[in-house]
Design goal:
Elements (H helix, E strand, L loop, with lengths): L8 E5 L5 H12 L11 H6 L1 H7 L1 E7 L2 E9 L13 E9 L8 H15 L4 E6 L4 H10 L2 E2 L5 E2 L5 E8 L1
Parallel strand pairs: 4-5
Antiparallel strand pairs: 1-2, 2-3, 3-4, 5-8, 6-8, 7-8
């Protein structure tokens, strides 16, 4: 998909003008689709793109001015790296608009993550996913990510989370 885009979709770094749309989309997907409880303190973190952008890199998939997808890339040792160990590049908060699913947007965002991690000399890409995120899980499997059961963890409320890793 790249900078020239397929179907007019471009993958690029988020700009300040994108932040509100990224926050809305992320909350819409995580809360609206039942992955995160609307009362969870995590909702505020999902919505706060500006704070996230201070210490992580946010990618967007846009068509014109419309944000159709986004994710957050976190290098190990930075505030948004939950599980990255030295040598691992982590991404979080992948969200693709319901109306844009099936267009390859999630795959294009992940390919940008993988390319970035390779270019920076990382040995692997890691992520945490939730059992309810079946569509995302199929995409991760297809791209070669593998479940690492000994690294699975639970949220403070006991929700089980799955860690997946792609060696580069």
């Amino acid at each position: 998909m790249g900078a020239d885009g397929v179907g007019g979709v471009v993958i690029r770094d988020a700009e300040v003008k994108d932040f509100a749309a990224v926050g809305e989309l992320t909350v819409e997907v995580y809360v609206g689709e039942g992955h995160v409880n609307p009362q969870s303190p995590y909702v505020a973190e999902l919505a706060d793109t500006a704070t996230r952008a201070e210490s992580a890199e946010i990618l967007v998939a846009v068509r014109g001015d419309e944000v159709l997808g986004s994710l957050t890339m976190a290098r190990p040792g930075t505030p948004y790296a939950d599980i990255a160990r030295p040598g691992e590049f982590e991404f979080r908060m992948l969200a693709v608009s319901k109306r844009a699913r099936g267009l390859g947007i999630g795959t294009a965002l992940l390919e940008k993550v993988i390319d970035t991690a390779r270019a920076e000399g990382f040995e692997a890409v890691v992520l945490t996913t939730m059992p309810t995120m079946q569509d995302a899980r199929r995409m991760y499997d297809r791209l070669g990510f593998r479940h690492v059961p000994d690294r699975d963890w639970r949220t403070s409320t006991g929700l089980p989370l799955t860690v997946m890793r792609l060696p580069l």
